[in-house]
Structure prediction request, 730 residues.
Amino acid sequence: MSKQIQAKKLVLALCAALAAGAAAADINVGVTLSATGPAASLGIPEKNTIALLPTTIGRQKVNYIVLDDATDTTAAVKNMRKFVAENKVDVVIGSTTAPNSLAMIDIAAESETPMISMAGSAIVVEPLDAKRRWVFKSAQNDAHMATAIVEHMLDSKVQTVAFIGFADAYGEGWFKEFARIAEARKIRVVASERYQRNDTSVTGQVLKTIAARPDAVLIGAAGTPAALPQKTLKEKGYKGAIYQTHGVANNEFLRVGGKDVEGALLPVGPLVVAAQLPDSAPSKKVALDYIAKYEAANGKGSVSSFGGHAWDAGLLLGAAIPQALKKAQPGSREFRVALRDAIEGVKNLPAAHGVFNLSAQDHQGFDQRARVMARVEGGKWILVK
Amino acid sequence: MDLQIALLLGQDGITNGAIYALLSLALVLVFTVTRVIFIPQGEFVAFGALTLASLQAGKLPGTLWLLIALAIAAAAVDIVCALRDGQAQRIPKVLAVNCALPAALAALLSIVPAASLPLALQVVLTLALVVPLGPLLYRLVFQPIAEASVLVLLIVSVSVHVTLSGLALYFFGAEGSRTPAFTDATFEIGDALIQGQTLLVVCASFTLIAALYFFFERTLWGKALRATAMNRTGARLMGISATSAGKLSFSLAALIGAFSGVLISPITTIYYDSGFLIGLKGFVGAIFGGMASYPLAAAGAILVGLLESYSSFWASAYKEVIVFTLIIPVLVWRSLTTRHTEEEE
Prediction:
């Protein structure tokens, strides 16, 4: 009798030890994003989305450690160091902006931790060198979006175009990308002006733009600040087409812009116009599912394009982690290596913003299915067929 | 550049310059009376504009909570002081002075739907919400260290700025807001089309400047402020309380800031952190006046506005560089022509 009890105790102790062992091997995901500072309008929906990501993947518990980097590169690096040294994370999601993500790459490579950035600029994953081997990106490259704009301009017989953009990495990146593609397709860029996100007036830039008499104007800005040049263009009597970038695809832009941004054309991820997509579009189901989850948690009409990038990063992990678990236990270097290989091997994964087809040459993985053209009509985003 | 473009740019520059001028006056006022270089001046612009916008959107502005919290804190500090002096009978008065307005505003906002009020009343409500923040901040932050050095006051003022802009992000969100124009009228003068709102900004700014002039020249309170600015100790000996002078100057600064915010929010989008840059340009104007002269500060601010407007046409990428580089020749000029500005008017 007493032996039986002892045996039972032993089994119980073993079970407890096993359970403790399993708990220690939870998958830890470090998330750093810009929930405050200039990129806060992108970082906040991303943060809300992280809260919706699955907490178990492949029967393994997943812990998300979310830190804010205040759109500050130094803080992003600090967060990254903390993830690697203290939290012993298996993978990092972040950050929101390209400068922050670029600053984190060194640590990702040095500690051999895969990271998935949500920034737009292609330089985060290109050129794919030894360091960037560890870096992936869930958001479309600017070039994806710029080609969509140029194609639309060609279709509408635009020959000359003017550019008004942010005097920062976003504006410069867009101008370079756009000018390169446009010149190659024989569209002439006749003016290139800059303004600050916080500027109270862009009259000077707009007057100079109008004086150059372009067929169309592209505004290379993100969020609500992109409404000001368009408002001023209308006010000063500009009649040509006005293009915006996908950086404005949130409802706040429509609220601030009001009737002045009607008719604006922009490339967007499928998520933004998910309900209007044909049923055959691969992203439709994923996007609608994400929108339903996000709006259930944050209120109707609250979803924005940017949160979708965090969701897509989560989908990448959801596809890759089960593969990596077959090879190694979380918390080890082997697991991080296996996870990196598994993410690189993701094929035909429909996401809210496109279809992932990653490879050793492409750590972003989207194709032309990752963008559609939309127009602002009646205060809504309408799919341009 | 033809004449029409030059006129449009000039109009734009004067509109922005008028706002900078108002802020530079507030900065000079606060500095001369309390020796505080008031970095958070711009925050009042953002709070004014965004409070009005959230009232119009039918939301309860976070400013109300900030006001209530500051009022309770100020009342608590005053009560502790009163008890320490053994004057418990002062407590009801302290409570009434500090908490009556916030309580009234809270009651009003919970009963009346602010979104349906006429614009003028919304503006009054906004000013009532934002302006008391000025004296409350003075009571809580600057009054206890009123005798500290200019450098300490500056550092504290930077920390107030960081706190306020963080709170603004929390209250109003990262995206900007705009309010509908006061008037849709437009006037055609020659070739140039002038927006009614632009004219309104310029007129209102100059009216306010004239009112300030009248206040300082003709009223007892204004003269008391001037006396404090000229000689703190001397003014104290004449029975002018440095504390009430400080509170009054902060109230005026908050009023000017909030009013500027209300004025420009129909013209441009205001973000939670817009105020800092606007305030900084006002500061460049104030430097023109050596932080002491009102007319020079106003003239400098208008010049900043014009320079900004024309440089945005010629070299938009370097606009801020051009505007802020202006400060260097001005500082050289001032340090060569003036010996010591501290005791001057």
